[in-house]
Design brief:
345 residues, FA_synthesis, alpha/beta, globular, Isopropylmalate Dehydrogenase, 2 domains, phospholipid metabolism, Phospholipid_synth_PlsX-like, transferase, eleven-stranded mixed sheet, single chain
């Protein structure tokens, strides 16, 4: 089955064209039905395509030399949306020339452009940035919001829970995802008024395709005890960076420990299968591809430092959301439970 083509912002990210094209090519080798609209400098894109036979016939190039800088303010980038590779990739989704857009560029700029071009779905106040994180269980956990909204009220949190559960059903196959709100404790009396009000609404709701299980503390996010963690963007971004930092700390500490002496180096050789498994589990490229949920279209944010494998995973996330029609799933869930009435409780 063919899919709508995916618009790739070839100029975004730390490595730019080379890695973005290499990642798209890797995704196509895994799934030969993928087709692409590659947005960026045509000369550089053609040079990169020459290294990947078969990609040229599956791709169209939209020439654009203007790039959104990594430190550029979203307000300034938004004014240049019609001339930048990021803006044109998102606009291709709006115009129906692509089914989804993938960019490794400036997150704030990508959110601003996506929200302006695609608009928020009816019944939703705000989109949210969601990503998959590894756990010790059999499931990955979806966490949202991870930075799109610094402040959120109870209504926003309830809507994020509905969106996160819809996404979880696609990626985990679980019919009733286990949903929890991020909080400073698991007792019902803990947390802000908005968190408690959101919990009350989710407990009282009927018709939701999820099991709301109360609160989760930050140190339990990766235990595998829930499928969706819901929070405001400020708290979520801090928690995500702390998790990523802890993972890098562990891997760097192991490297230092195993290189400290001859005995340690021998111990590394003995334990190498275990350390390789740990490295694979903690590698962010294996879970790359954050999604802006709640828009009238699919936009996936790849980590700026992602390698080709990470970019390929982000492309595959976009394809899977297209295949499973995430936008209509969220709309259906909101309609079944009366999204506005639920969130207003």
């Amino acid at each position: 089955m063919s899919l709508p083509r995916i618009a790739v912002d070839a100029m975004g990210g730390d490595e730019g064209v080379r890695v973005m094209i290499e990642g798209a090519a890797l995704a196509r080798r895994r799934h030969d039905r993928f087709k692409f609209l590659l947005v960026g400098d045509e000369t550089r894109i053609k040079a990169a395509l020459a290294e990947h036979p078969g990609m040229a016939e599956a791709s169209e190039i939209l020439h654009c030399e203007d790039v959104v800088a990594g430190d550029e303010k979203p307000s300034r980038a938004l004014r240049r949306a019609k001339t930048t590779s990021m803006g044109l990739a998102v606009d291709a989704v709006k115009r129906g020339e692509a089914g989804a857009a993938v960019s490794a560029g400036n997150t704030g700029a990508l959110m601003a452009m996506s929200k302006l071009a695609l608009r928020t779905m009816p019944g939703l106040d705000r989109p949210a940035l969601a990503a998959l994180l590894p756990t010790l269980g059999d499931n990955d956990v979806i966490m949202l919001d991870l930075g799109a909204n610094r402040e959120c009220d109870a209504r926003n949190l309830v809507q994020f829970a509905i969106m996160g559960a819809a996404y979880s059903r696609i990626v985990t196959g679980r019919e009733r995802p286990r949903v929890r709100l991020l909080n400073i404790g698991t007792e019902e009396t803990k947390g802000t008024e908005d968190i408690q009000a959101a919990a009350d609404s989710l407990r009282a709701a009927s018709g939701l395709s999820m099991d709301f299980e109360g609160y989760v503390e930050a140190d339990k996010i990766n235990r595998g005890e829930c499928d969706v963690v819901v929070c405001d963007g400020f708290s979520g971004n801090i928690a995500l960076k702390a998790i990523e930092g802890a993972a890098r700390f562990v891997t760097d500490l192991l490297k230092r420990a195993f290189s400290s002496s001859i005995r340690s180096k021998v111990g590394f050789l003995v334990s190498r299968p275990a350390t390789e498994l740990l490295r694979h589990h903690l590698d962010p490229n294996n879970h790359n591809g954050a999604v802006f949920l709640g828009l009238n279209g699919v936009v996936v944010k790849s980590h700026g430092s992602a390698n080709a494998k990470g970019v390929a995973n982000a492309v595959e996330v976009a394809a899977r959301l297209l295949e499973d029609d995430i936008t209509n799933r969220i709309a259906k869930d909101l309609g079944e439970v009366g999204g506005d009435e639920l969130a207003a409780k």
